[in-house]
Specification:
The chain is an alpha/beta fold and 368 residues long. The protein has a single domain, classed as TIM Barrel (Alpha-Beta Barrel). Helices cover 39% and strands 12% of the residues. It contains 12 helices and 9 strands. The protein has a 9-stranded parallel β-sheet with strand order 5-4-3-2-1-9-8-7-6, covered by helices on one side. The longest helix has 18 residues. It is globular. The chain binds iron/sulfur cluster. Iron/sulfur cluster binds next to loops.
Amino acid sequence: MPGETAATPIRTTVTLSVPNRGRGRSEPERPEIESKTARARLGTAETVLLEERRLLTTAELAALAELPDQWVTSLAALAHQVRLAWCGPEVEVEGILSAKTGGCPEDCHFCSQSSRFDTPVKATPFLDADEVLAAAEETRAAGASEFCIVLAVRGPDERTMVRILELVPMIHGRTGLNVAVSAGLLTDDQARRFAEGGVHRYNHNLETSRSFFPNVVTTHTWEERQDTCLLVRTHGMELCCGALIGMGETDAQRIELLGQLQELDPTEVPLNFLNPRPGTPLGDAQPVAAWEAIRWIALFRLGLPGVILRYAGGREVTLRELQSMGMTSGINALIVGNYLTTLGRSPEEDLQMLSDLRMPVGALTGIL
Ligand code: SF4
């Protein structure tokens, strides 16, 4: 109004102490690289993936992995373009159910379900059919297109085989969801029976590279895991083969794992970040830094351009506010709801994130 003087705004500067987690042990010092060199490496990757449409070699991936932090946004942007070009815009949503938790005889150092460590996770028996069906229906109502039954076992015994083979057609018939199973190491005959019994996708994670694996598991070998993955492919099931980042492996070992995954050619790769579980040998490890996690999401997409790259365990504790950035750095699938032994955020929050990002949910968009 004329004659009125505007009030002078008072500015206060507050210095907040921001938690500085420093460099985790999974975050190495990287060499100085000139901008010209960084741009050339990214340009080569773009030509290879978007024009030649071949896979990057592990040497090309290693050259990208050493780009300095300020190039992570460029890596992420390229990874997003590669995801759109190779996989399309849809995001696949999956729910998982731990049908038998804890009490596993194996000694995977990252896992709170091992009976060898004193963790808060207590062994539970196989859930009954009604509980599994109820969870599958809930998952479908949350917008998922896939449901995965997970058991903490070295491999399925005959009783477990029979239970799973009863449940799979029941769940598919009742909900229409594709059913995936994760039940450890398989024999040739078990893989054949699962395939014939309607298991759409079988999950068996390599977790880490062949050279690092003996540091974190001693009760079975990396090669045994690889054999099960090969049997899944041989019998015609889709292979879901995940990775766990942040156990102390080096950049070179992550690249080695990418090369090993390229050879296995899985349909899906769940990307887990270590969420250190109390009581396990890795309970005091430091989570991967958020920016480093974005770098590796992008590198996994650039190394595995056509896979379903799924956000799996540890994303909340690792990425915090950067979870939506992961979706534009190469991720194209989510596990909604809770993980096997840790809580995830609500399916509604994830579906809101996808809606904010204008990313359509594949297969079941109609029911959202
Ligand atoms: S990762 Fe699997 S095999 Fe290893 S201890 Fe956990 S449940 Fe058992």
